[in-house]
Prior knowledge:
Elements: E1 12-16, H1 29-42, E2 46-49, H2 61-75, E3 80-84, H3 90-103, E4 107-111, H4 120-133, E5 138-142, H5 144-147, H6 153-159, E6 165-170, H7 175-186, E7 194-197, H8 203-208, E8 213-216, H9 223-234, H10 238-254, H11 262-270, H12 290-299
Parallel strand pairs: 1-2, 1-8, 2-3, 3-4, 4-5, 5-6, 6-7, 7-8
Helix pairs in contact: 1-2, 2-3, 3-4, 4-6, 9-10, 10-12, 11-12
Amino acid sequence: xxxxxxxxxxxxxxxxxxxxxxxxxxxxxxxxxxxxxxxxxxxxxxxxxxxxxxxxxxxxxxxxxxxxxxxxxxxxxxxxxxxxxxxxxxxxxxxxxxxxxxxxxxxxxxxxxxxxxxxxxxxxxxxxxxxxxxxxxxxxxxxxxxxxxxxxxxxxxxxxxxxxxxxxxxxxxxxxxxxxxxxxxxxxxxxxxxxxxxxxxxxxxxxxxxxxxxxxxxxxxxxxxxxxxxxxxxxxxxxxxxxxxxxxxxxxxxxxxxxxxxxxxxxxxxxxxxxxxxxxxxxxxxxxxxxxxxxxxxxxxxxxx
Length: 305
């Protein structure tokens, strides 16, 4: 369990915010400012800057730092800012995490190393090495559907004993597995680490099982209701959480009709929030899906008819 920094306030709806871009692919900091202010006004509890949804894979090191710095500056301490600093090189992940610390991030989110497919021992050593090198609270991030590597619960339990690691984002969507992880973590002598959902469709259920919140894609377009869902689940009001979730369940599905963040960026453009900019190899949402995303925004009440 991390003893560094105040991570107790990191809970609820944590938006994995998009990185706005102009149509030529250049970064749009004015739109980013407006998004951060909108999220704070709508009740979002925290922001992940430059995660998967923030197109971390196609931002260079300077851009990566500049987006994190900008989000921290605009938020000005009003909500928690978690910097995406994962990499499939331990050395690079350390450097990115050191930069996030210098910029004033509250914590770092580190995805499991992708493509090179480390073993479970490799995952353990990767995260332990980063935690020992940088004094910044670290949230592990397991999303095997994107990375090609799956951190087993046994490995997460081992890492929960490492000082500096305070949480894990579980994006498997497997509630049985999630419940097992939460139960085993709570039984640890040090109290374990926090669990956050990384799957919007099942988040309210995982919170009901003991998770602290949801690192959300859907919150990009529906921040207030996602905050309300998480708040209801955290206070034990499962009926309200389920009812609210049903209102935006269609978004959890349609926002993955193509690879994230393609649909959610198009949705935000449809809402008038950002320009229509993504970077290759990602492309603008295919024409065949655009009416479906628009209809889902209307059906969920995100857009007015």
